[in-house]
Amino acid sequence: MNTVTLLQWVYVITFFITLLESVLYIEMNRGKVSKNQLLLFIFSTIACLSYTMLVFTETAKECYICYLFYFIGIAFSVLSMLFVISDLCGIKIPRLLQKIGFIFAFICVVLLCITDSTELWFKSYSLDHFYSLSIIETEFGKLHFLYYIFIGICVLTAIGLAIYSIIKSKRVSKFALFSFICILIIMITSYLIPKFTSLKVELMNFAYTLSLGILLPILRRANMSDMSASLLNVFERREDYGYITFDLKKRFMGCSKYAEKLFPSLKNVAVDSFVPTTDALIYEKLFPFIDNWDGINRSEQIIENDDIAAICSIQYLKQHKNNIGYFIELKDNTIQQNYLNFMKSYNNELSHTVENQTEKLLLMQESIITGMSSMVESRDNSTGGHILRTSDCIKIFIKKIQKSNKYSNLSPMLIENIIKAAPMHDLGKIAVKDEILRKPGKFTPEEYEEMKKHSTEGAKIVAKVLENIDDTLFITIAVNMAHYHHER
Fold first, then answer.
1. How many whole angstroms separate alpha carbon 366 and alpha carbon 369?
2. Which range is least confidently modeled, 2-11, 137-146, 230-239?
3. Which of 304-322 are b and which e, b meaning 16 or more Cβ less than 10 Å from the residue's Cβ?
4. Less Cβ around it within 10 Å: N or C end of the chain?
5. 453-488 residue pLDDT tens
């Protein structure tokens, strides 16, 4: 294989790579192809094919026809690039200006077509060779400068829109726009090098191949933002709905106005960038919700911020059955949540009131029990301070047995009830006659039998006194303590 043939094959290869990139674009965006993006790939492929055919031509006429299609590809690909950047920036070019752009490009094509009879575009052209690559040699006509004006206006407008959006807008992908600016610089440099150097062959085939390869992943991500923009048009019509989109790495892709109310920091987050870690609500509530989602079943969580509450649900953003990001749907739940919060507050307040009233009743109950026990004790001359001593002994006894592993599982409620019930153990003495209860000496056998009855009577009295109290455990302990406190 000689050098010339190798150079020709290089151009053939660049064309087929460009064609493959165009096919990949259509396949990757099947069903959601952007018109302007598709035109960019089509005209870029036409330009590559035309110049590839040009290097194989053998006559000046064949070379001229190939150059005509090459010119059409360049002119309309640059115009399509402008429209694509406009779409990415979210800046709508007026339809009148779009028509003027196409008309201007069409006029340039017509002038090139009639150059044989008018010499307005080329005064003359001829076939030449660079090594053995066929090239076209031309002498420019009077109106050829219109081509440079057209290309210059398109490129400068595109770069201006990109820079303006990078500086002013948070809802565009700065990475994508920077990439487009670099692509424009590559294309213009590739176009100008043959004009101002001794290199006679065009380099645009290589520029198109490189540029379209860079654009494939960029446009794939950019179309996610376009998807967010489409969703925005739907959700903005409803004040009680919203959405947030993230890619799989949790880079922000877009959101609605309602989402900005719930998560105010999103107003300052640029598309295709990470949310600042200072946003506690997102990193403590929303991202854990995403991380804990199983990826299959519908999952919901309520997120509140100030006076706004929303039900968040999550699902994947898909492209050709591939998961490309997360779609967080937000449904306003403020009224319902405020009602639930009110009911919760009301229940807490009611519970607190009931606890206070219960505590008052328990204190009253204890006072009555202590009073009754004291009244009984006042009738018994031999047991002064017996009630207090019994309660204190019970407390000491319980503390002691709690230290034992055998009784370490005694519940605080059981201990409290035992201590509260202790003063009631001798209530049965109220049924014993004064002459026996207050007798200073030793009991006779008959008197002793009478005295022993006070435990049985005490159990009856305690059960009667506590019958309306809604505390079964306390009643059981108090009755048993009165009935079985080991009188001999």
1. 5
2. 230-239
3. beeebbbebbbeebebeee
4. C
5. 788 888 888 888 777 777 788 888 888 887 877 555
**Model confidence over 277-335: pLDDT tens digits?**
888 888 888 888 888 888 888 788 888 887 788 888 888 877 667 788 888 888 887 76
Pairing status of strand 241-247 against strand 308-319: unpaired
pTM equals 0.61
Q: In one letter, which amino acid is 399?
A: K
The CA-atom distances, in angstroms, between 241 and each of 234, 249, 250 are: 10, 25, 21
Tokens of 369: 């029990």
Q: CB 132: neighbour CB atoms within 10 A?
A: 12
With b for 16 or more beta-carbon neighbours within 10 A and e for fewer, the 343-369 pattern comes to eeeeeeeeeeeeeeeeeeeeeebeeeb
